[in-house]
Design goal:
Blueprint (H helix, E strand, L loop, with lengths): L4 H9 E3 L7 E4 L3 E4 L1 H13 L9 E5 L9 H17 L2 E3 L6 H8 L6 E4 L13 E4 L2 H8 L4 E4 L2 E8 L8 H12 L7 E6 L8 H10 L7 E3 L4 H9 L19 E6 L6 E3 L7 E3 H4 L6 E5 L6 H11 L9 E5 L3 H10 L1 H7 L3 E2 L19 E4 L15 E4 L2 H10 L25 E2 L26 E8 L6 H4 L13 H4 L11 H8 L2 E5 L11 H8 L2 E6 L4 H9 L3 E5 L3 H5 L5 E4 L2 H6 L4 E6 L4 E6 L4 H9 L2 H8 L3
Parallel strand pairs: 3-4, 3-6, 4-5, 6-7, 9-10, 9-12, 10-11, 15-16, 15-18, 16-17, 18-19, 21-22, 22-23, 23-24
Antiparallel strand pairs: 1-2, 2-8, 5-20, 13-14, 21-25, 24-27, 25-26, 26-27
Helix pairs in contact: 2-3, 2-5, 6-7, 10-12, 10-13, 21-22
Bound molecules: FE3-S4 cluster.
The site of FE3-S4 cluster (F3S) has 13 residues, from α4.
Length: 639
């Protein structure tokens, strides 16, 4: 039987396991990326591994999340990142050079190679036929040290595109349509492969919008073929030598197949507070708009912003609307400046932000109380924008720009813009520093050591510290906003804010009880790959999370931190659990060593047993027994 595109890449990088659904496989990693929010911790972990230099072909550290420097903390972190990456042989993309996924797509992506990144939108580089996966920071550190990346062989899903996008529709509408059909949990344990006659009509940045937001489906990754359009893109980036063709075999087998006819697609919009709450723009109607934010790693490309500039040219932004634009990269911004489009954008009354994440992560531009914010971004989780009462909608750059002019939501159907991928891009890599592997590593006072767990105890008796519902995101567990981001390398400080938007007293309770358990519903830990959502609970003494199900990256992060990810065998047992119940787990080291998946949890308060399951691979069992991945690495080195 033939192979799909990702099966081909996995096959070429396979170190352990077989291409068999749900079996654990290990693959060699060619490239890694980090961003500043997760990167400081990743490099502290890399340092703990005592290697001389990174073993990957290309590793890049980006500073894009927190560009505000209102105190010494961020500046110190940036200095640490620059000096530690230089020491280990890692490229450093300076603040202002752009968002990691946009820059990586432009300057580093290679079809057929593997990439893991400590950011959940790493799959963006699937746009050129790369196997690009979002992972925890520790997995990225391990990959840089030459350790394979382990994950369960995903199911293969084929999204067959036919036809051509009609005027007013864009790549954003394609991924919103996929989200409408599959929902935020529809991609879990799956890789989405885009094929069909409609693919050749999509440029690489358009494909990047789709692979980027595939993260919202919970998918392992998304991938496009590497074809003539890919070749043109790499040539225009002056990297023709990186081109390799990639397509699925004709007899490749897919577990699920979906068809989308682009001719029939309408402008779509994701309503508050989930990227899968998708309706047509027409259905939502002419709601009043207070803020419009255009850019991010989803829609910050040259092509996207040229469309916006064309719409805004000679017009004025509605007086009641604040329009902010953050270009995806310095390359994009420079090209807009050179061809005059930037002047058109500014003349319309739009505000220009730095090439970085900015409002996407609540880093400035939080909307006013009760405001409606229209964003071209990828997430609209409750509170992520920094204003709890705001309602955030996700849409295409076309819908956003027309609406900014009108002051109300506008359906851009039938508006023809005709902007395509340029023949050549502006190449200037002066903001990407090549490492010379020399010099000292500079550490400011905000850089605290990462927390370490203890080896697994045979017996645990602890209280349920909190009971949360379904779809709890890593933003809920460990918020990341303008106030907290400067402390990303200071876990003791961050711990005070754990679960703050759900329960203000959680952190104090966890400290006074010296740790305990978390009870959760479905898809616990979805959203951003933020490792801090596991490291902070570890610091607070959390021993285990008992959930109906876990999001993939967060589950790995828990195991890496030595926290037990237990699943209810019967969902109805979730209903019986209460905060403050005392739970007792016996014989744990024996159960884990013997790979017994059934763990009986005794609820002391209610005098009843609850069945949970602990499905761990051999490697994961070792990590849980050792109390986390760093402990295991040290143990294996005899330290
Ligand atoms: Fe940055 Fe938002 Fe993307 S935080 S990496 S622009 S999802």
């Amino acid at each position: 039987m033939g192979l799909t595109m990702s099966q081909k890449i996995i096959h070429n990088h396979l170190v352990s396991g077989k291409l068999k659904k749900e079996e654990e496989i290990g693959i060699q990693i060619d490239q890694t990326l980090t961003q500043d929010s997760t990167g400081t911790m990743t490099y502290l972990q890399l340092e703990a591994m005592n290697i001389d230099e990174v073993k990957t072909k290309r590793s890049v550290a980006y500073v894009d999340h927190n560009l505000l420097q209102v105190g010494f903390e961020n500046a110190d972190d940036h200095k640490y990142l620059q000096t530690v990456t230089n020491r280990y042989g890692i490229y450093f993309s300076k603040p202002g050079n752009g968002i990691c996924h946009q820059v990586h797509l432009e300057r580093f992506s290679v079809p057929g190679q593997t990439l893991i990144g400590s950011d959940s939108h790493t799959p963006t580089c699937g746009a050129v036929g790369m196997l690009a996966i979002g992972a925890g920071g520790l997995d990225v550190a391990k990959a840089m040290a030459g350790v394979p990346y382990y994950f369960k062989m995903p199911k293969m899903v084929n999204i067959k595109l036919s036809g051509t996008l009609q005027p007013g529709c864009s790549a954003k509408d394609i991924i919103l349509e996929v989200l409408r059909r599959l929902t935020v949990k529809g991609g879990v344990g799956k890789i989405l492969e885009y094929t069909g006659s409609g693919v050749c009509n999509l440029s690489i940045p358009e494909r990047g919008t789709i692979t980027n937001m595939g993260a919202e489906l919970g998918a392992t990754t998304s991938i496009f073929p590497s074809d003539a359009t890919t070749k043109e893109f790499l040539k225009a980036q002056n990297r023709l030598e990186d081109y390799h063709e990639l397509s699925p075999d004709e007899d490749a087998h897919y577990d699920e197949v979906y068809e989308i006819n682009l001719d029939e697609l309408k402008p779509l919009i994701a309503c508050p507070h989930s990227p899968d709450a998708v309706r047509t723009v027409e259905e939502v109607g002419t709601i009043k708009v207070d803020q419009v934010a255009i850019g991010s790693c989803t829609n910050g490309s040259y092509q996207d912003l040229m469309k916006v500039a064309t719409i805004l040219k000679g017009k004025t932004v509605h007086p009641d609307v604040s329009l902010v634009i953050s270009p995806g990269s310095k390359q994009v911004l420079t090209m807009l400046a050179k061809n005059g489009a930037l002047a058109d954008i500014l003349a319309s009354g739009a505000r220009l932000l730095e090439s970085g994440c900015g409002p996407c992560i609540g880093m400035g531009q939080s909307p006013a109380t009760n405001a409606i914010s229209l964003r071209t971004f990828n997430r609209n989780f409750y509170g992520r924008c920094g204003t709890l009462s705001a309602n955030v909608y996700l849409c295409s750059p076309e819908t956003a720009a027309y609406s900014a002019l009108a002051g109300v939501l506008i359906n851009p159907m039938n508006e023809k813009l005709g902007i395509s991928q340029p023949d050549s891009f502006e190449i200037n890599d002066l903001s990407i520093i090549s490492p010379n592997k020399q010099g000292d590593i500079k550490r400011g006072p905000n850089i605290k050591p990462f927390p370490l767990n203890e080896p697994l105890s045979a017996y645990l008796t602890k209280k349920v510290l909190i009971k949360v519902g379904d779809h709890i995101t890593t933003d809920h567990i460990m918020p990341s906003n303008a106030k907290l981001l400067p402390y990303r390398s200071n876990i003791p400080y961050l711990s005070q804010y754990c679960f703050q938007t759900v329960d203000e007293t959680f952190a104090t309770r966890a400290m006074s009880e010296k740790g305990g358990f978390i009870i959760a519903g479905l898809n616990y830990g979805q959203g951003s790959s933020r490792e801090h959502a596991a490291l902070v609970p570890l610091y607070l003494g959390i021993k285990g999370v008992i959930a109906k199900s876990f999001a993939r990256i967060h589950r790995s992060n828990l195991i890496n931190s030595g926290i037990l990810p237990l699943e209810f065998v019967e969902d109805k047992d979730y209903d019986q659990m209460n905060q403050n119940d005392v739970l007792e787990l016996k014989d744990l080291t024996h159960l884990v060593t013997q790979a017994q998946p059934l763990v009986m949890v005794y609820n002391v308060t209610q005098n009843r047993y609850i069945k949970t399951r602990l499905l761990l691979s051999k490697r994961e069992r070792k990590m849980i027994l050792a109390g986390g991945a760093i402990n295991l690495i040290k143990q294996e080195r005899g330290e």
